[in-house]
Amino acid sequence: MGDKNQTQAVEFVFLGFSSIPNSHLYLFLPFLVIYLVTLLGNLMIFILIQLDSSLQNPMYYFLSHLSSLDICISSVTVPKILLNFLLQRQTISYNQCLAQVFFVGSLTATEAALLAAMAFDRYAAICRPLHYSHLMNSEVCTILAFATWVWGFLHFALHTALCTRLSFCGVNQIHHIFCDVPPLMRIACNNTHINKMALRISSIFVGGVPFLFTILSYCFILSSIMRIRSTAGKRKSFSTCASHLIVVILYFGNGLVNYNRPSAGYSLEMDTVISTTFCIITPMLNPLIYSLRNKEVNGALKKVVRSQKNPN
Fold first, then answer.
1. pTM exceeds 0.85 for this model
2. Which CATH class for the 8-309 domain?
3. Of 54, 75, 100, 209, whose CA is between 20 and 30 Å from 111?
4. In the chain, where are the structural domains located?
5. In angstroms, rounded to a whole number, what is the distance separating the alpha carbons of residues 200 and 194?
6. Is 137 in a helix, a strand, or coil?
């Protein structure tokens, strides 16, 4: 009982920015700007989809969930980082750390599943156009979206529970910028074999399966596009999934580097860059990618702007 109480009383110290002298002076404003752009960009996408009737279809329904996820992922990590910059310290309590572990893991797992669902939607639209309305009716879309959230949160409840078994024996310095399972396992002083096995198995199901499903979907999509005779037809079909494909490459590429690094790990500086890119930069880029490359989103945004300029 004494060990448990000692473990629960630990306050962790993040070392991610320790190599940057006076980091609170140089990094607060960039992180604040990134966070505000993330919130405003994703909120804009979400509101546009709710307001514009031309965006009331499965692709944008899933995109609204992606925007919600990106807001949540960024909000789990960045406000704490900003607060620590203001207080000129890099600490987090044990309970707050476990909460970060749960929500970061749950939300990133949900996003992997959601991107796979979005890939299936693009497959159905391009490869099965005659059956699209049946394959992706509102009931199916609702079930798929709900399932991705439940899947992500149930999955990481297990890892969070396993993290409560870890003891730290006075070691409280985390080589990271927020709490996550791998950094906590590295500083634990008790046996982490079960945690490592659970993480390896879940990475196959939570990361590997959605990734392979997405790749398979795009193999069928590209094969179908290549059979289109006209260049204009090929360009139009590819444009409907180009934004999603860019987001998929960003997400799974960063996720692969973040969670499957060599056993020796990277330098602390490289760890910080990778983690920042995966959980902080990527949520900011997603709405920019969709708004810059998508004519329908641009059209909806222009209509809103015109209606504000000419309310009558």
1. yes
2. mainly alpha
3. 54
4. 8-309
5. 10
6. coil
